[in-house]
Amino acid sequence: LPILTFSRCHFHLKSSYRLTSLAISLVTTLGINRRPMPADRQNLSVIFPFPKGAPAPSNSAKTWSPDARRAYIGAYVICSSYAHALRKTSTLKYTPYLEECAQSLSSGSGLPSDVLLIHQVRLAHHVESISDTFDYDFSRYVPAVPDSQLSFHVRSFSAALTGIESLIPARLTTNSLLATSLLVVSAYTHEIGLHGLRPNDALSLPRTTILIDCLGAVRRVLDAVVALNDSDFRALFGYNWARIHYSLSLAVELSLGI
Q1: Would you say 41 and 25 are in contact if contact means Cβ atoms under 8 Å apart?
Q2: Distance of alpha carbon 50 from alpha carbon 60, whole angstroms
Q3: pLDDT at 98
Q4: What is residue 9's predicted lDDT score, i.e. its pLDDT?
Q5: Which of 11, 20, 194, 248 has the fewest CB atoms within 10 Å of its CB?
Q6: Torsion angle, CA of 44/48/53/57, rounded to 10 degrees?
Q7: Which band of pLDDT confidence, cut at 50, 70 and 90, is reported for residue 165?
Q8: Mean pLDDT over residues 224-238, rounded?
């Protein structure tokens, strides 16, 4: 699928982000980001057929084929990852239908990687929620936020991330790519401590605590990447590298920008 193919290529980060616009355009043009109408299914039956020999489900009028659902989920996760790395906004937003697609694939008997999709969607949605709340973008001035409000949001988002992690079955906890994604999202959660911080601002104790936790999360990301075996390292996709690039950039920001 063209939407997923470019995620294997290690393009320049900004070039990759521009390509996400193409992925989003394809998804919305094909209509796979919403429940299909009967005419949609007829027109796209060649592009996204149901597996050969397998009958379409009885509710097929409301269900895209597995490949179409994978393309939608892949586009969402990839676009979210590049937007996250560059502190941009992705126009392909989370919807309950997206999670429904991921859940149906994860509970099915398709590809082995399908079991990871629901967790990747939840992590990307968590990042989207933080980005929408704080509008991460270091190119614009943002007003200072009271320490009490920052601490509240960190606790709230950290608890939400713990909830997402608790839903990951034990058999998947050893998946290095999923584990690394969790660590990156944890760092993103604690980056809230940089929000509204200007050079030479005095650091309060609550904000200092948040930033120390953020630096610890970044270190765990880098430790996890260094610990990857050859097989897992070669399996990294472009969007995985975007997340690693984000972690390195955040480490520099924490070390030099405060």
Answers
A1: no
A2: 10
A3: 93
A4: 45
A5: 248
A6: -80
A7: very high
A8: 84
